[in-house]
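F.,

This is the one I mentioned.
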């Protein structure tokens, strides 16, 4: 029994005492922490409602040029020379087709002559001015 008592005494003392702690591990130096990646902010783009096509222009109105008979809003320039050759730059969308056809006769009539030749380029035929046509009119000799 003395042995049992001795054993109990050792166990009792062992419970009162803290066990010897092992030395705490020293943390290894780590690589510096990488900076946090910047937050990507995606802007939201408002969606525009569909746009309706523009309405067709109304029939041309307004003052008419006295030399050509074309609406003044459609006329860009009228040039001529002493031999009664004319060059007319105009916007066909801003005048009547009938007025375009009658313009060469009206130009030559104002000069007291008849039309010898007249030609108009096709819309978009290599024009440097979109929407603009050129008419070349040659009147007959006096």
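My design for it:
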């Amino acid at each position: 029994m003395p042995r049992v008592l001795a054993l109990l005494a050792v166990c009792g003392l062992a419970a009162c005492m803290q066990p010897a702690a092992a030395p705490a591990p020293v943390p290894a130096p780590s690589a510096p922490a990488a900076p946090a990646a910047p937050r990507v902010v995606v802007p939201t783009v408002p969606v525009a409602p569909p746009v309706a096509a523009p309405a067709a222009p109304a029939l041309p109105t307004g003052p008419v040029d006295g030399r050509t008979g074309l609406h003044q809003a459609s006329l860009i320039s009228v040039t001529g020379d002493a031999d009664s050759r004319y060059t007319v730059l105009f916007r066909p969308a801003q005048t009547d087709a009938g007025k375009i056809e009658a313009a060469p006769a009206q130009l030559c009539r104002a000069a007291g002559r008849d039309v010898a030749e007249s030609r108009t380029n096709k819309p978009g035929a290599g024009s440097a001015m979109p929407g603009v046509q050129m008419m070349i009119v040659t009147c007959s000799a006096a």
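The beta strands are 75-80, 85-90, 115-120, 133-139.

Talk soon.
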